[in-house]
Amino acid sequence: MSEQTMTQHNVRYLAHQGGSVRGRIRVPGDKSMSHRSIMLGALAEGVTEVDGFLEGEDSLATLKAFRAMGVQIEGPDNGHVTIHGVGMHGLKAPQGDLYLGNAGTGMRLFSGLMAGQAFDSTLTGDASLSKRPMNRVADPLRLMGARIDTADKGRPPLHIHGGQPLKGISYDMPMASAQVKSCLLLAGMYAEGETRVTEPAPTRDHTERMLNGFGYEVRREGATAIIQGGGRLTAGVIDVPADISSAAFFLVAASITPGADLVLEHVGINPTRVGIINILKAMGADLTLSNEREVGGEPVADIHVRYAPLKGIDIDDEQVPLAIDEFPVLFIAAANAEGTTRLRNAAELRVKESDRIQAMADGLAAIGVEHTVYDDGIDVVGGTYHGGRIDSHGDHRIAMAFAVAALCAEGDIDILDCANVATSFPNFKALADTVGMRLDVIEETA
Ligand code: S3P
C-alpha cells in the first residue's frame, strides 16, 4: 500500500456497552516528541538513537519525508529508531512532494524547516489536513523572508521556495499554538539574528526542551522563547515517554467505570501537557502519580487511576492549552459527571483534525447527552445515555472518545470512519481488550 492509500479502507468500531477497566498498560510513545525526534535527529551531526518512538501513521509520515530528503534512518523496530544525521545543511531535494498524512504538527513544523533550505519543496496531506489553516505559519514565515504559496484560503498544499535568506523576527502569536511556536523556532535556526516568539498562554514546550537537549540553546524570557540563528545540533539519545494524550482515553475510561483500577506506565507529565490530570482531579477523579522521574529532559510518572464519581465543573481557561487534545474524551467524562461541565475559550478545537466542538456535539446528540454548543466551547450535562451511531469524521480522538463512552452507555455505540486511530494509537484495540473494554473493529476494504 502506498502512504497515500494507507487509510483508504473503512474501519468501523462496534463498542459494546459495559466492560471493565483493570490492569497495567503502557500506551504508545508521545506523538509530538516522536515527530520532533526525527526532525532534530535528521539535522544533527552524528547518530541519534530514539526509543519509545510512536509507530503511528503521523510520525511515520515524518520519518518517510526525511528519508525522501536523503536521511538514512533505521527502524522503527519496537519503538527503536536510528537516525544518521546530515547536519543543518545536509538535506537533499526530494524527488516528489512531501506527504505528511493527517499531521498538522508535521505540516506546520516542516514549513519552518523547509523555509530554511536551499531547495524547493511541496508539502501535502490527507483530506483532513488539506482543510486546515496554514496561514498561521505562512504569514509569520513570510515576515522572516520566506516565500510560500498556499492553496485557496491558506490551505495546503504548501509550496515553499528554497534559497530565501531568512531574518529573525519578534512575533506575538495571535493564538496559543505550540505548532506555530515550533515552526518559527525551527525556521529561526536558519535565520540571521534572533527569533523571538511570544505566546499568549503556555503551550507544550517539547521543541525547546529537545533543542536544548541537542545542544542548541533556546532561551526563555517570560512568555517569550528566543533562538539565535546559525547554530548546530549535536546527536544524542532520546527516550520518548508514553503519550499522555493517548493515556487520556484510559484515564477517563477508568474514572467513569465502577470498579475500575488501572495503572498507566511511564507517561509523560510535562507541565505543559497535564491539563487532563488537573481537569479530571477538579472533577473528583482518583488519580495518583508515582515513580516520578526525569527521562531525557522530560518528566514521566506512572499514573494509578481508580473509579470515583465525577462532578461537573467550569473548566479553568488556563487549562485549555494544556489539555487541548484531550477535550473529546473530557466531554465523555462530563457526560458521566453529576451536573454541568462548561468549557469556553476553546475555539482552537474547531480547527483540529475535525471541528471537535461540532463533531462531539453531534455524537453526544446521537447518544442522548444533553449539551449546548457555543462558538468557543460547549456545556455538557451529565446523566445516563443510550447507544447510537456516531460519525467520527475521520478524527482519531473522536473515535476513541466514543469507544470509551460505551463503557457506561445503555446500548452499543457504532462508530464510523475510525481508520485514523492508526495515526496516533495503532494498538488502541489491543490495549482496550487488555483492560476489559468490549470493542469490535470491523474492517471493510474499499
Ligand atoms: C501539537 C500542538 C497542538 C496539538 C497537536 C500537537 C504539537 O496543536 O493540538 O496535536 O506537537 O506541537 P496547536 O499548536 O495547533 O495547538
TrEMBL record:
The active site consists of 325 (proton acceptor)
- Please explain the role this protein plays, according to its UniProt record: Catalyzes the transfer of the enolpyruvyl moiety of phosphoenolpyruvate (PEP) to the 5-hydroxyl of shikimate-3-phosphate (S3P) to produce enolpyruvyl shikimate-3-phosphate and inorganic phosphate.
Q: Where does 3-phosphoshikimate bind?
A: 31-32, 36, 177, 179, 325, 352
BP GO terms, sorted: amino acid biosynthetic process; aromatic amino acid family biosynthetic process; chorismate biosynthetic process
Residues spanning the signal sequence: none
Please list the residues that bind phosphoenolpyruvate: 31, 104, 132, 179, 356, 397
Q: How does it assemble?
A: Monomer.
Please give the catalytic activity noted in the UniProt record.
Answer: 3-phosphoshikimate + phosphoenolpyruvate = 5-O-(1-carboxyvinyl)-3-phosphoshikimate + phosphate
The record's similarity note reads: Belongs to the EPSP synthase family.
Q: State which Enzyme Commission number(s) the record gives.
A: 2.5.1.19
Q: What is its main location?
A: cytoplasm
Q: Where does it localize?
A: Cytoplasm
Which species is this record about? Zymobacter palmae
Q: Which residues form the Enolpyruvate transferase domain?
A: 17-429
According to the record, the segments passing through the membrane are none
InterPro entries registered for this protein in UniProt? Enolpyruvate_Tfrase_dom, Enolpyruvate_Tfrase_sf, EPSP_synthase, EPSP_synthase_CS, RNA3'P_cycl/enolpyr_Trfase_a/b
Which keywords has UniProt assigned to this entry? Amino-acid biosynthesis, Aromatic amino acid biosynthesis, Cytoplasm, Transferase
Q: Pathway, per UniProt? A: Metabolic intermediate biosynthesis; chorismate biosynthesis; chorismate from D-erythrose 4-phosphate and phosphoenolpyruvate: step 6/7
What is the protein name stated in its UniProt record?
Answer: 3-phosphoshikimate 1-carboxyvinyltransferase
The terms under GO molecular function for this entry are: 3-phosphoshikimate 1-carboxyvinyltransferase activity
Q: Name one GO cellular component term.
A: cytoplasm
